[in-house]
Amino acid sequence: MVSEQEVENVARLGDISIDKERLGEFTAQFNKILSYFDLLDQVAGEGDAGEHDLYNVLRDDEVEASLSHEEAISNAGETEEGYIKAPRVM
Amino acid sequence: MQGIYTFDAEDRHNAFITRQEEVRYGDGKLSGVAIAVKDNISTKGMQTTCASRILEGYVPPYDAHVVSLLRREGAAIVGKTNMDEFGMGTTTENSAFGPTTNPCDSTCVPGGSSGGSAAAVASGMVKMALGTDTGGSIRCPAAFCGIVGLKPTYGRISRYGLIAYSNSLEQIGPMAGNVGDVSRLMEVISAPDRHDSTTYARPYEHTPVADIGGKRIGLPAEYFGEGVDKDVAAAVRKATEKLEEMGAELVECSIPSMAYALAAYYVICTSEASSNLSRFDGVRYGPAVEKRRQWHPEFRDHRGKRFGTEVQRRIMLGTFALSAGYYGKYYAKAQIAKENVRRDFTRILEDVDLIAGPTMPTTAFKIGEKTDPLSMYLSDILTVPANLAGLPAISVPCGKVAKMPVGLQLIGKPFGEEAVIDAAYAYEQGVSQ
Questions:
Q1: Tell me, what's the pLDDT at B81?
Q2: Interface subset of A 2-41, CB within 8 angstroms of B
Q3: What is the least distance, in Å, from the CA of A81 to any CA of chain B?
Q4: Mutation site, B311, B320, B377, interface A, largest A CB count within 10 A
Q5: Secondary structure of residue B433 in the 3-state scheme
Q6: Gap from B236 CA to chain A (nearest CA, Å)
Q7: Would you tell me which residues 56-85 of chain A have a C-beta closer than 8 angstroms to some C-beta of chain B?
Q8: Is the pLDDT of residue A9 over 80?
Q9: B97 by DSSP, 3-state: which?
Q10: Residue B429 phi, psi (nearest 5)
Q11: Exposed (0-12), middle (13-18) or buried (19+): which is A85, by Cβ within 10 Å?
Q12: Cα→Cα distances B297→B20, B274, B294, Å
């Protein structure tokens, strides 16, 4: 069973604000879904499953046509001198 | 043949999020054919929202590979269809633009997540549509609305320009009113693409043949057992008997790994979603965040306000499944389970040519009927195995139960779309005679 505090912590890690009122419902649903996921305890084996036919897909490092600078930043909320503005980090 | 397509059909089922009234089209294999595109596939110059408030107003600066191919072949792309937000749902009720309704009965859901595409085809607004299928999102709405939908083999269609939800499972695929049109659309969208390194150069160039003679068709016990509505199972049994009459041989089989396929699917798709959807921060696209506040508090409020509840739930479940201490219990086990599912299908497909069963365990639910997330997830049980195993799977209408359509699902070998389409075509032609 996970607690409301754990669900709140997961929301914080996932960068999602959850109202206190919704936390109880989220937690109840979380526990129901996680107990269904317990079915996976019956799966034998540990570690990562084997991968198949892995090979690299690379091309020659040659410049090809791509989006223009203007197009690439055309959806940004705010730009300044060709740069995208983001909230402050510090 | 070049011209302008006038798209004036009334949208009675809320199938579209964005529509174009006049569409210029060119020459080609789909010249002048009206096609709708699911709203998680990028269309240059046309708003693409994934049915989410977090992408409202986003206008892609480039076309998805499949969209370039449609344009190249002269298709008239008339609009972008409604869906469950980011593809997360089985009913198209989880849309920021309101639910789509089922053209067969507007008190029912059309299925999801490509419900808008299915409703647009089923109501006759367009001839063909593109959907995407991560765990059944093409086949479910095709079954619920009584149309044909194909999820191609993983790696057969480029995902370049598809706004990712769960990269290792999802594929773009064709939807239409009949198998012939699904095949025509498949032919156009399967051209190779170097922008998606998970694709193989295996273009589909095929004209359907209505011949099922000598084919062996596996019927897994799990597809007709507990949890599957008896009338739906009976309708699908009857369809397989029709295939038998036409010369196919029916073989009983079993897929033991189905027991944990659904749990594995939801662990993998939520884990991938938690990573994929971290890019929606209101900085590079979508409505903008406030720049004066600090980074994390501002992102949290933005994502708390603009993502729908189901999207938030899946991001949180995935974040949890990948967190330290739980990775081995959930994600690693899910990958092993996925591999077991793939092995089971490989083993059966060595003995048979195709696997048949119902697409969905029931017919379409009523709008608002499913409120509990887990019970909604459980309805995907018959569609997720093909995504876990990466196999091609089609849903073709096979009669009705209480006036609502039932879908026959046919699953084939990797890159065996031709055989899957031939079998569906044989069934469709066989019942129409």
A1: 98
A2: 2, 7, 10-19, 26, 29-30, 32-34, 36-37, 39-41
A3: 15
A4: B320
A5: coil
A6: 28
A7: 57, 59, 67, 71-78, 84-85
A8: yes
A9: coil
A10: -70, -40
A11: middle
A12: 38, 18, 6
Give the burial class of B201: count Cβ atoms within 10 A of its Cβ; 0-12 exposed, 13-18 middle, 19 or more buried.
exposed
Cα B369 to Cα A71: distance, rounded to the nearest angstrom: 44
Asked if B55 and B285 count as a contact pair (C-beta separation under 8 A), the reply is yes
B415 touching A (Cβ < 8 Å)? no
Place of tokens 């995902």: B159
**Residue written as token pair 């038998």:** B244
Distance (Å, whole) CA B157 – CA B200: 8
Q: Give the pLDDT mean for B237-259.
A: 97
List chain A residues with CB under 8 Å of B266: 33, 37
The closest CB to that of A77, out of B264, B288, B333, belongs to: B288
Is B393's pLDDT higher than 90?
yes
Domains observed in chain B:
14-259+333-432 (3.90.1300.10)
Instruction: Identify the sign of the CA torsion A13, A19, A20, A21.
Output: negative
Q: Model pTM? A: 0.97
**Angle at Cα B45 formed by Cα B312 and Cα B269, nearest 5°?**
25
Q: Are B139 and B152 in contact (CB under 8 A)?
A: no
Q: Please, are residues A16 and A46 in contact by the beta-carbon 8 Å criterion?
A: no
**Record: contact A40-B333, CB cut-off 8 A:** yes
A58: left (phi over 0), alpha (psi -120 to 50) or beta: beta
- Minimal Cα–Cα distance from B123 to chain A, Å? 34
Give the integer Cα–Cα distance in Å for B327 and B84.
Answer: 28
DSSP annotation of A86: -
- Dist. CA B70–CA B188, nearest whole Å: 7
B322 lies within 8 A of chain A by CB: no
Instruction: Determine the pLDDT at residue A47.
Output: 59
Q: Is the CB of B288 less than 8 angstroms away from the CB of A48?
A: no
Write the pLDDT tens digit of every residue in B113-144. 999 999 999 999 999 999 999 999 999 999 99
- Identify the CA nearest to B143 among candidates B412, B430, B404: B404
**Contact B266/B352 with Cβ under 8 angstroms?**
no
A contacts of B267 (beta carbons < 8 Å): 37, 40
Q: How many residues does chain A have?
A: 90
- B:173-232 residues touching chain A, CB 8 A cutoff: 194, 197
- Share above pLDDT 90 across residues of chain A, in percent, rounded to a whole number: 71
